[in-house]
Each structure stands twice: as C-alpha cells, then as structure tokens.
Design a protein that fits this description.
The protein is mainly α and 117 residues long. The protein has 4 helices and no strands.
C-alpha cells in the first residue's frame, strides 16, 4: 500500500482488515475510539468518491445521448434541451454532493449577476 502513490491516505487495504478487527477487539477504549473514527473517515471518503463517480457516469451518458439526439433537432429545441439538462445536472451535482460543480456554477451565476448591475 505504501508503494502506490495514487492511493488515498488511510485507504483500506485487503491485508488491513484483520488488523482493524484486531485493534477494535483488543486494546483500550481510546485506541478503539481512534480506530472507529479512522474507519468512519475512510467510509465517508469512499462514499464521496462513489457519488462523484455516479455524477461522472451520468454526465458521460448525457453527452453520448446528446451526440445521437442533437443531429435530428433544430437550433431552438437543442438550446432548450441543453438548458434543461444543465439545470438537471446542477440538481444532480447538488444531491450527490459534488461540491466543485455547484461552487463553480454559483461563482459563474454571481459573475453574470454583477455584470448585469
């Protein structure tokens, strides 16, 4: 695990599962609480990664569908569908917790709002 530079910090390893169980079953309560906290952080990190992966998958599917569908649409229908898709993607990003997308869009909206004033 230490040899992999791309590995997440404290990422679970197949060999570590026995060590984690051993630390939880034997040892003082402070060791157990630290181990539970470390495992909780690992779980939360993994959940965030999976939500981001779902968002990327959704984005790729939408792009592939657009390539197929937009060849048969006129300009106004394509613009309307694109706007609707952007709104739905932002809702999906917010629900899945993909903060960079939501913050980037908020920054973009703020920039346009300041330019209009």
């Amino acid at each position: 695990m230490a040899d992999d530079p791309d590995a997440a910090p404290n990422a679970p390893d197949a060999d570590d599962s026995g060590e984690d169980l051993e630390k939880l079953t034997s040892g003082s309560s402070s060791v157990k609480s630290k181990e539970v906290e470390r495992l909780s952080e690992q779980l939360e990190h993994e959940r965030d990664r999976r939500k981001e992966d779902w968002f990327v998958f959704l984005l790729i599917v939408i792009i592939l569908v657009n390539i197929h569908v937009y060849t048969n649409l006129d300009g106004l229908a394509a613009v309307a569908i694109t706007f609707l898709q952007l709104v739905l993607l932002l809702v999906a990003a917010d629900r899945l917790g993909v903060k960079p997308v939501v913050s980037w869009f908020s920054h973009l909206v703020d920039k346009f709002a300041r330019n209009r004033d």
